[in-house]
Amino acid sequence: MQGFEVELFPEPKEIALLGHMLHVSPTVFTTWGILAVVLVLALVFRLVLVPRFQENPKGLQRALEAAVEGLNNYVGSKLHGMSESFGAYIFSLGLLLIASAFVELLGLRAPTTDITMTLALGLMTFFLVNYYGFKRRGFLGRLKSLSNPFLVLSDLVSPVSMACRLFGNMFAGMIIVDLIYLAMGKFAVALPSVVGLYFNLFHPLIQAFIFITLTLSFIAEAAEEKE
Fold it and tell me: What are the boundaries of each domain within the chain?
């Protein structure tokens, strides 16, 4: 019999900085690593692969413009008149969620399996919901929309609900893959790889789509101008 243990929160690591010992979560290191890699790839794409944008796009530029147009159309279908300013954030959010899951293929724990990470993303949605709610409806209009206690409770609960949904799905996927590896032992060759590919690629795509759709839906509801 083998024991199976999993940490709900990644154990903080000690690092020395300017003569002081700091306790930093591995989630922070992994997330900053993801951001650094994405930034480098973006610079390589812009400076090397597509140094100049052409009027008649071809190849990578054409694919990039098609992706941007498709994203803006989807955001525009949810947030009328806000797609141009909001598409970049949605793209960045989706890329972060997918890359966070992909790092599990490298033997690292996905940041989205840390409830503090998903809660931070949920709070960002909560901030955007209220920001655009006040911006589009006005101060009095937004306060009037919150006169119903049920709506106030819904606004307060939504970031926690989104955070728990994302965390629960990603955490469950991590546990399933670990259990398969543990159960198969030295025979863990083909099946764990296929299952791991699903939970580290296709499953995160679904969860990212759900999180993004919920974010857009909540913002659209808060920013909807009433007669």
Answer: 55-223
